[in-house]
Each structure stands twice: as C-alpha cells, then as structure tokens.
Amino acid sequence: MSMDKYYLKRILVLILLSYIFLMWGNGILNLTNPDEVFYTQTAKEMIRHQSWLTPYLFGQPQFEKPIFTYWLLKFIFTFFGISNFTARFFPALFAMAGVVAVYALGLLAFKEEKKAFLSGLILMSSGLYIGLARTVFTDMIFSVLILWALLSFFWGYSRKNRKKPGLILFFFFTALAVLTKGPLGLMIPLLIIASFLLVNQKELRFLFCKEFLGWGFFTFMIIALPWYMYILSRYGHGFIQEFFYNDHIRRFLIAEHSGNDTWYFYPAAIIGCLFPWSILMLCALAYLIKRLREGNNPFHLFLICWIAVVFLVFQASHSKLISYILPLVPAFPLIIADFIYSFIADTQKRRFVFAPFLITAISFLIISVGLGIGTCLFMSGFAEYVSLRAPLCTLSLLWFILAILLTILAIRHKYAQFAYLLACYMLAFFGVFPFAVKGIAPFVSSKDICAYLLKDYKDEGVILCAKPFVRGVRYYTDKPVAVYGSNFFSPHPVPCVSTDEEVTEFLQKQPITFAVLTKSTMRNIVNLIENQKGLKCILLKTAGNEYLLKINHDT
User: Fold this and answer.
1) Residues of the domain holding 96
2) How far is CA 351 from the centre of its chain?
3) What is the DSSP letter of 2?
4) Residue 329: alpha-carbon gap to chain centroid
5) Distances (CA, A) of 345 to 7, 118, 123, 406
6) Which residue has the higher pLDDT, 500 or 554?
7) Strand order across the beta sheet in which 481-484 lies
8) Residues 492, 37: contact at Cβ < 8 Å?
9) Looking at the DSSP assignment, which residues form a beta bridge with residue 547?
10) Which among 58, 124, 51 has a CA at the least distance from the CA of 330?
11) What are the pLDDT digits (tens) for 374-413?
12) Which of 49, 278, 313, 444 shows a CA-CA span of 20 to 30 A to 270?
C-alpha cells in the first residue's frame, strides 16, 4: 500500500470515529436554552423574511454575531427542514474537519503518523470539544476555521514551495472566521504567527512578501468585507453600537457573568475541559517546555505561541465563558500525543511517565465509585431526578470497568494502549445518554412546557417569561413574549417588566396571561397576585425547572 493510500485510510478511520464522537445521536435532545434556540430562531426568522444578509430575531434585525453561521443554518434548514439534528449538523461537521486538521498538522510537524493519529483521537474525545460539537454555537465553527488557518500557515512555513497557497489559504480561513465571530477571527491567528516568527530567530520577514501583503490580504478583503460594508451602509450606527461596542468593547470592559471574572477561571476551565486527558495534559505541557529548551523542532514554539496568545487575549477580557477558549484546545492533543509517543520510543524513560498514567487510572476509579455512590444517595431524595438513576448507575459501572483496565495497562507500561482505551471513556457516556434524555430534557429545553402551553393557548396575548426561557418559548411557540426581569446583555426588542408596578400593569392589560417562570420568579408573581384584587393564577404544569402559570382576571 502506498503512503498516500495509507494516510487516506487513516483519515477515513478518523472521520468515522469522529462521526461517532461528535455527530451521532445529535437529534435526540431538544434544542436547549438559551443559546441553541437563539441561533436557530435567528436562522428561522431569516427564512421567514427571505433574507440572506440581515439576521433577524423577535422580528427585528439583530447583530450579536456576524452572518456565516446563519448562512449555514439557513442553507440546511431550506433544503432539509428545521430539526434538532440539522441545527447541530454544521457545528459537528466542522468539529470533524478539525480532527482531520489536527491529524494533518501532526503529520506535517512531527512526521510521525502514530503521533498524528493519536492527536486526532485525543481531540475528538476531549470534553469541551465534544460538548461544543454537539451544540448550536458559533464557537466550534470559529475555532476550526482558526485551526485550518494555522494549519495553512504552517504548511506554507515548513514547505517553502507551498508558501503562496499556504498564506492565501490562511487568509481564506481567517476571512470566514471574521464572518463567523468578528475581528478576533483575524487578530488571533495573526498574533499567533507573528509572535512565533518574532521569537523564532526573528523571522518576521517571512510575512513581508507579496503572497502575504498582496494576494493574502486581497483574498481576505473580497471574502470578509462585502457583508460588513453592506450592513454598515444599511444599518450604520445601530450595527456599530450593537456589534462593535456592545459585543466587543463592552464585553471586554464589563463582565457579563461576574462570577467568571477571576484570574483562575480559564486555567481551571482548561484543565476541566480536557477531560479525560487533564492529568496527562499537565504533564505534557511541562514536557513541552523541556522540548522547547532543546530547540529541536520549531513546532514546539508554535504550540506555545498558539496557547499563550489565545489564553492572554481572553484572559484580559472581563466577560469570560468556557466556550471562548476553544481555539486553544486543538493545540493540546498535539502536545499530549508528542509526550506519550516520545516516551514510548525511549524504553529507558518509560518509568518516568508511570506516575501520571497510574494517577489518571486511579482518579477515574475514584470518579466512577463517587458517581455511583452519589447517584444512589442523591437521587433517592429527589423524585424529579429519578429517571436519571439507572443511566448514571450504568455509566458509573462502565467507567469503573474501564478504570480497572486502565490501571492494568498503566502497571504493565502499555501506554499507547492506555491512550486508546482512555479515548473510549466518553463513548461510555454516549452509550447511556439516550436513556438519560428524558430526565435531562425538561431542565435544559422549553420544548415540553411549550407543547403543553400550545394546547391551551388561543391567541391570548404576550407570554411572560423568566429570562432563561424567553428565547426557548419564542422558538417553540412562535408567539410574542415579554421578559420578567432585566433585558439581556445585548438587549432584545421585547417588552421587559421588572418592578411590581410594571408586572401588575402588564397583567391587567391582558384578559389571560400565560407565564413560563423559574421557581423564584413564580413565587414572586404568586405573592404579587395574592396582594392584588382582580387577579388569580393557576399552576398548569411543571417541567424540570420551568413553571407554567395561567393568570386571568378574577370575575
């Protein structure tokens, strides 16, 4: 078999495996609050307005994110209909493309197929990567486009006869990234390659060429700029205020989620999001610094610059979310695979990595036992979680068996087999997930409560919603909604009532008001109505953490 056919076969294996890890079963769980329904509803309203250029939400143009993700959603909805699976298709597809990119980058940098293949396997089995591949966010699409841009650059850098196509492709992918999430799509990759070239024997002159300053920028401008120019010319100040100020400058200066605005949020998130590879990742990172001092491979410096730039860019911002750091996650599988196979190749050094492998195995023994005991103790006291007991106990048992096998492989110094088995850890989760959906769905999606509401809803007016449920109720009912509480960080064009006076006035205007509320907001409404004359309410249904009230005039 020729090497090209061998590599193609390995890529096909990775694609098949990544389909199982990242796309299989994506239609089982209903679209969740508050973000999946936000993006899906926007694309749905674009179809309704027959618009390919202006995103719509609640019947009005909205500019929280650029257009590319909405193009993908509108395309697939137009031809294949709106469903849970079609909404999640492109994030999963891009995630699969990211696995292939990491494999190609590993081959290019390490020139060892085993390292490259393991890198792809580690990426597809990492917790955050799996989660965002199966979620309708912009982050996966954005991060994979940055990954492909960095692959294109390194291809052009390491193979001088590929410099021109490499740099042009770099700008092609950054242009799409800018259309996905904004200026960071260009800023982050540029900072990574500039810092790498500057530190690596001051090679910044690599970029001062017609391929970069000419063809590259031209490619970027013809792809990225037309949509921004159109939106600026049509919406002007409104677009600038929402997109550039509110979603970039204001998020940088003000924490949307104040509890996340700590120095340790992202370091802790990185460790947690690389599960089940977290312990090996920390050891591999220390080993990378050692390899960097040896200076044998400039790719090690490239990986350090990649991680450092993404981390520092988002660490400086006051608005912090775990999904923001996804662009640095693909660097870690390459580091971990290099760490594992470098020690496997040197039999004299194998004993030095025995401890992290054994600690990893023992930690999963503890996790599996803790999950089993916690499930038995916790679930027995909460009837609403009883449907999760069997799936969680099954998951605990499967993880326990895998942890035993991992311990045996660690003791026998079978580190390659250990790594491949560790990747199967998340497969055990997927095995029980379909059986847990019934118990999970009411806590993450408004589908059930809205289906019940629509049976009784007869054009009764605006539905009053607690903020976490506003987007979901709009998506699943297509009815007018109002927010009980303050508006969103990026305000939506919907009525907001927060004070008792505003709520009373709102309820008095409608003969019947349906309200989808949290437990605390429901108590507020009930207490308010008890102190008011002429209003009464009935609790129609409870689903997870959502409470459906019917409020009408007491005649």
Assistant:
1) 3-345
2) 37
3) -
4) 11
5) 21, 15, 22, 20
6) 500
7) 496-497, 481-484, 463-466, 512-517, 546-553, 535-543
8) no
9) 517, 542
10) 124
11) 888 776 656 666 777 888 888 899 999 999 999 999 999 8
12) 444
Domain end, chosen from 407, 442, 477, is at 442
Q: Return the pLDDT at 381.
A: 58
Q: Do 326 and 402 share a domain, yes or no?
A: no
What are the contacts of 348-353 at 24+ separation with CB within 8 A?
350/413, 350/415, 351/413, 353/283, 353/415
360 and 491 both lie in a single domain: no
- Considering the entire predicted model, what is its pTM? 0.95
> Which is nearest to 232 in space by CA: 66, 30, 89, 11?
66
Cβ(133)–Cβ(23) below 8 Å: yes
Question: How far apart, in whole angstroms, are the C-alpha atoms of residue 385 and residue 391?
Answer: 11
Number of domains in the chain: 3
Average pLDDT over residues 315-333: 95
At residue 51, the 3 state secondary structure works out as coil
Q: Are strands 535-543 and 512-517 parallel, antiparallel or unpaired?
A: unpaired
Q: Roughly what angle, to the nearest 10 degrees, separates helices 298-315 and 184-199?
A: 140
**Same-domain check for residues 354 and 339:** no
pLDDT surpasses 60 at 1: no
Question: Of 256, 189, 228, 221, nearest to 65 (Cα)?
Answer: 228
Tell me the residue length of the chain: 555
Q: Is the pLDDT of residue 175 over 90?
A: yes
Residue given tokens 């850098």 in the structure block: 157
Whether residues 185 and 334 fall in one domain: yes
Q: Are both 247 and 218 inside the same structural domain?
A: yes
C-beta contacts of 390-394 below 8 A and 24+ residues apart? 390/435, 391/432, 391/433, 391/435, 391/436, 391/439, 392/432, 392/436, 394/431, 394/432, 394/435
Contact 390, 337 (CB under 8 A): no
Provide the pLDDT for residue 465. Answer: 95
Q: How far is CA 32 from CA 27, 153, 487, in A?
A: 12, 36, 19
Rounded Cα distance between 303 and 170, Å, is 17
Contact 528, 498 (CB under 8 A): no
For CA atoms 388, 391, 393, 396, the dihedral sign is negative
Last residue of a domain, one of 315, 345, 375: 345
For residue 348, what pLDDT band results from cuts at 50, 70 and 90? low
Statement to judge: residues 415 and 511 lie in one domain: no
How much is the pLDDT for 382?
Answer: 62
d(CA 5, CA 43): 40
Whether residues 134 and 252 share a domain: the answer is: yes
If 0-12 CB within 10 Å is exposed, 13-18 middle and 19+ buried, where does residue 430 land?
middle
Q: 3-class DSSP state for residue 535? A: strand
Examine the domain organization and report whether 334 and 425 are in the same domain. Answer: no
